[in-house]
Amino acid sequence: MLGLNKKDSTLLIVVAVLTLFAPFILNPFPADSALAQFNAGYPDLMQRFVVFGIFAIGFNILFGLTGYLSFGHAAFLGIGSYAAVWVFKLFTYNVVPAVILAVIIASIFALAMGYVSLRRSGIYFSILTLAFAQMMFALAYSVLSNPKFNLTNGETGLQVYADDPQMFHRAGLPDLPHLFGLSMRATYDLDIGAWSFSFNAGYYLCAVVMMVVFYLSIRIFRSPFGMMLRAIKSNQTRLNYTGLSPRPYALAAFVISGAYAGLAGGLMAAMDPLAGAERMQWTASGEVVLMTILGGTGTLIGPVLGAGFIKYFENIFSKINDAVLHQWFAFLPDGMEDFVVFIIHPFVGKGWHLTLGILFMLVVIFLPGGLVEGGQRLGKWIKSRGKSEETDKAKIEPAE
Amino acid sequence: MGILEVKDVSKRFGGLKALSDVNLSVAENTVHAIIGPNGAGKSTLLNCFVGKLIPDTGSVMFDGQSVLGRKPYEINQMGISRVFQTPEIFGDLTVMENMMIPVFAKRDGHFQMNAIGDMMKEKDIVEAAEAMLVDMNMADKRHMHAASMSRGDKRRLEIGMCLAQEPRLLLLDEPTAGMARADTNNTIDLLKEIKDQRDITIAIIEHDMHVVFSLAERITVLAQGTPLVEDTPQNIKGHPKVREAYLGETA
Ligand SMILES: Nc1ncnc2c1ncn2[C@@H]1O[C@H](COP(=O)(O)OP(=O)(O)OP(=O)(O)O)[C@@H](O)[C@H]1O
Ligand SMILES: [Mg+2]
Questions:
Q1: I need a surface site. Which of A93, A168, A335, B176 has the fewest CB within 10 A?
Q2: Domain ranges (residues) in chain A
Q3: Is this structure's pTM higher than 0.90?
Q4: Is the CB of B40 under 6 A from ligand 1?
């Protein structure tokens, strides 16, 4: 299908079905049950899943295939957002030109940053990207935000004001980002019994874009270019002595992953028309590294899983506070209840980072291939169990 | 004129003179061995041919063109391939992919952006790589991870990868170092076959005299950074200076 082999086609279809039905899948608990806390099927969060999925898919093309670990990719996310918001301010709230410009501007910056950083490899490359991204952050946070020349609106963040030109804005179009008139906030709520599901236009736009770029990443993985990138990771010496120059290949991968990040940034602004410098901070760059490693570096689906996992934690675990815990453990005797809440307290709410950190360490130590490896091992285990049961049967049958 | 002409090459590492005024000519379609005791400067000399090192003085001409100042990949594209002392292959890739990369490099040059096409649908590449695997007697290992093969197979693959580019000059730096006897003999047979069946010039650095005398048509003896003698294997065997400087150690 679409020039993919059978295995890749299956993966693509599975991902398509999951993203299509995500509003159902992510809301398994009735709206007013105690477990509704764990429902993740609301538009904001679903949008974040796919947007960060796109970010991580792109990052994986660089890090997963070539092994070059960039600590500065959040810069492109921020640049994409700024570019998109500027399109909203100057021209139109239509998201198509905004997102396209976000990709173009981010790619140009990636070309410059990659050109400089790829002169070194290993830790020096990582440090160069980090330095570059911190410079971009400083530029966005203060330097490019002064009364004479205000490109980023500093601390407040760039947003659309009523007196902005918006040259192509017409009466009748939504006063928010829209796709040819369809507001990104448009949501259809479906109530079935005690359950409630939200279908949001913005989410579905992001989901379609993610499917397209996920498909592209599969093609890249299977292409001669993808093989060269894996060769860079495997042995640069041999590549050099095989008449191939690693630098332009790595640079191309860098620009592609920067373009993915710019796309994610543009979509973020399209979901919520503002752009702030914190989006470019080094912690944000580190997050996409964690997503990729957690999900499975160099695997097709891993980064998406990792992004979903981390965003779920950030948004769901962080909301569990002491009141919620007391409610859960109300069935215990009072002293016990307080004790259990006391133990769990540091790991939830604001302490969700702690839980994530522990999980991350466990995955890296016991599942170096990330969640994907976990899934594969589980699959193998189930299969082998099925087989051994069959052989058990086979042993018994002759006796009958 | 040989295919490789080395004139007055010197190379210093700090206070150490690794090469001093080396002159060497490798004739086309011969096997030329370079021997000498440890630290004689053999690897340094070879590194000057492939762009890894730039000599302080002198010139290195390949087929009438200077290689000095060119990058390793550019020199490789001129027609010089190199086998390393420890096999340098793409360990994370399959044997087939390892073989496809040099074929791509031969067809497409040092950089070609094809990010959308399926590499397995590049018919001519797949066929050429498969043919080379058959030549190397490794067709059955095509799906294996290159890193999981034995040392001898890795060496065989590396040589195959070099040949897949159809180089005019093949350089080998101690190709049998650290190999078991059987693997060494296999490598000798392989190199003999290559020499008989292809139009190729081979320059080989080797400590193992059995290998040297089974293959070489010319031998240069290097000692302390200067060529001592250059002659046929027969004459080298009996040469008093050589016995003293080099073979004397092992005899
Ligand atoms: N990069 C370098 N920096 C400093 N000294 C070097 C370097 N490379 C080689 N040398 C020195 O130059 C001399 C020649 O080394 P070279 O590796 O060329 O010898 P060789 O003939 O290949 O020896 P062997 O048979 O042990 O491989 C040695 O004394 C070595 O220590
Ligand atoms: Mg050496």
A1: A335
A2: 6-282, 316-394
A3: yes
A4: yes
Nearest atom, ligand 1, residue B222 CA: 21
In chain B, pLDDT over 70 holds for what percent of residues? 97
| Token code pair at residue A290 | 């964690």
Question: A329 or A249: which carries more pLDDT confidence?
Answer: A249
Parallel/antiparallel/unpaired status of strands B226-231 and B218-223: antiparallel
Q: How far is A375 from B16, CA to CA, in rounded Å?
A: 57
Look at residue A350 in the predicted model and tell me its pLDDT. 83
How many alpha carbons fall within 13 Å on the CB side of residue A64? 30
Give pLDDT, residue A33: 84
State how far residue A208 is from chain B, nearest Cα, in angstroms.
19
Residue nearest to ligand 1 atom 31, measured at CA? B39
Q: Give me the long-range contacts of A349-355 (CB less than 8 A, separation at least 24).
A: A349/A317, A349/A318, A349/A319, A349/A320, A349/A321, A349/A322, A350/A318, A352/A313, A352/A314, A352/A317, A352/A318, A355/A313, A355/A317
* Nearest ligand to residue B47 Cα: 1
Output the CA B176–ligand 1 centroid distance in Å.
Answer: 18
User: Residue with the nearest Cα to atom 22 of ligand 1?
Assistant: B43
pLDDT confidence bin for B247, thresholds 50/70/90: low
Where do the domains of chain B lie?
A: 4-89+152-247
CATH fold for the domain made of B4-89+152-247: Rossmann fold (3.40.50)
The residue type found at A265 is G
Atom of ligand 1 nearest to the CA of B174: 27
Q: What is A232-285 written as a DSSP string?
A: HHH-HHHHHTTT--HHHHHHHHHHHHHHHHHHHHHHHHHHS-EE-GGGGSHHHH
Q: State which CATH number among 1.10.3470, 3.30.720, 3.40.50, 2.60.40 fits the domain covering A6-282.
A: 1.10.3470
What are the pLDDT digits (tens) for A211-232? Answer: 999 999 999 999 999 999 999 9
B89 neighbourhood in chain A, CB within 8 Å: 235, 238
Rounded alpha-carbon distances, angstroms, from residue B159 to A271, B132, B175, B187: 55, 10, 9, 9
Q: How confident is the model at residue B195 (pLDDT cuts 50, 70, 90)?
A: very high
pLDDT band of A332, cuts 50, 70, 90: confident
3-state secondary structure of B94: strand
| Mean pLDDT to the nearest integer, A98-118 | 98
Q: What is the DSSP string of B121-171?
A: G-HHHHHHHHHHHHHTT-GGGTTSBGGGS-HHHHHHHHHHHHHHT--SEEE
Instruction: Assess whether the C-beta atom of B136 lies below 6 angstroms from ligand 1.
Output: no
Write down the residue that tokens 């764990």 correspond to.
Answer: A38
Where does the pLDDT of residue A110 fall: very low under 50, low under 70, confident under 90, or very high at 90 and above?
Answer: very high
Indicate the average pLDDT of chain A.
Answer: 92
With a 6 Å cutoff on the Cβ, whether B225 touches ligand 1 is no
pLDDT at B251: 40
CA B157/CA A228 separation, integer angstroms: 18
pLDDT band at A397, cuts 50/70/90?
Answer: very low
Cα dihedral sign, A362-A367-A372-A377? negative
- Helices A352-366 and A370-396: angle between axes, nearest 10 degrees: 60
Which member of A223, A238, A241 has the closest CB to residue B115? A223
- pLDDT bucket at A393, cuts 50 / 70 / 90: low
A219 touches chain B (CB under 8 A): yes
